[in-house]
Specification:
Order of helices and strands: HHHHHHHHHHEHEEEHEHEHEEHHEHEEE
Number of helices: 17
Number of domains: 4
Distance between the termini: 65 Å
CATH topology of the largest domain: Rossmann fold
Helix content: 40-55%
Low-confidence stretches: none
Radius of gyration: 23 Å
CATH superfamily of the largest domain: Vaccinia Virus protein VP39
Structural class: alpha/beta
Shape: globular
Number of strands: 12
CATH architecture of the largest domain: 3-Layer(aba) Sandwich
Strand content: 5-15%
CATH class of the largest domain: Alpha Beta
Largest sheet: 8 strands, mixed
Amino acid sequence: MSTAREVAYDAFVQVMEHGRDPDEITEELLAKHPQPLKRIDRNLIKELVFGSLRWYSKIYWILQNTSSRDLDKTTSEVRAALILGTYQIFYMDRVPDRAAVNESVEYIRKKGQSQASGFINGILRQIARRAEYFAKPDKVTQSAQYLALQFAHPEWVVKRWLTHFKFDRMEKLLASNNQPPPWSIRVNQLKTRLEDTHVLQEQLLRDEKTHTERRNLRGALTFQESPKLDADSLFGKGFYTIQDEASQIVGMMVAPEPGQVILDAACGPGGKLTHMFELSGGKALITGVEKNPRQMVRTKETVTRLGHDAITLIEKDFLDYKPKEGEAPAKILVDAPCSGLGVLRRHPEGKWQKKPILVLDMMELQRRFLDHALEILAVGGELIYSVCSFEPEETTGQLAWLKEKYGDRIELLSPVGRLPDYFKRYVTRDNVLMIYAGNQDDLDGFGAWIVKKRS
């Protein structure tokens, strides 16, 4: 079978059975193959893995209804062969059905499970005929179950969101989560002036055959094709980095100034950290703290690639970090650990790896971060809080908790004056930046706000 499909099937097994990150395990598996794959093959791997993760529960429901066996009692490799095979049949028009069937059968043979090849061949051929119809939950009387199945989301997530959104809005939100996110990038302002972004676009098209489109946010582009990421590419040379626009807006809320002492409390993988450095013209005194070794490795790679070596990096738990005496930060960005429910389209594995208790667990951890940030922040300094979530417990609820606990010792600041006019629409009357998934500008889901420490 093709290397690309074998890597994709193996990666899917690792994600679903062992909770691995799909990007990380894919790179590990690719490293075991002596020959580097072409961009078209890497794109195929990404579509197979992420597409199957997006539609996992719906595909599994179809398979369970098609099979006379209980698929939960089969091996993880058999399930992967069936799920990725079905994904190719239903969602990849350019893949012939026979290829999806044959490659899935070959995969299971290669895994030493030839006794299951006939079963897989029969199920996938039956699915390829598309002759079966299975009744879905009723759209009106079983709306949560219907939405969960139709849009392949966990029922607990659907029920949670139905308490805040109407049915029509839910359909748009869930459908958006199942679309591949755009390749959003941020131009490195220390190498390309924002007014010269078109020059970088021309170079990308000429040298790398990559088409780009300008966005409403200056310095932000989206790619029509996946970018080249090798060391000799414009990415590798640090002319840009991959970052969603919503994440870039958070950096603008910090509004870093030359000479300011700024702390990023959980800086991995370095997107907001390096953006703040660029926004200050490379003159802010920025420190990034990160306890996760893997995330710190990614952060160091990003900082070095972009040429932002003046940033100080400390591998440490933020809750244990104390600045030196007389060096209290003027601003602290708490891009806090969160449920990540605002970025499920970017991380579809989260739909199946996350549990309902996660929101409350993250809420408690975020409060510890906020308490510690206010403890070490300079008087008159600003705490900028953000999460890639729009859950009330992690956004507006945290602000309400902070106000109640600290009273007039803090002051809520409006982020409106720090944002480009176009993006002010995402700031609520309570001065909270709230971006919900499935928005008209195709941004990730985020929540953020700013408070000033008065005493």
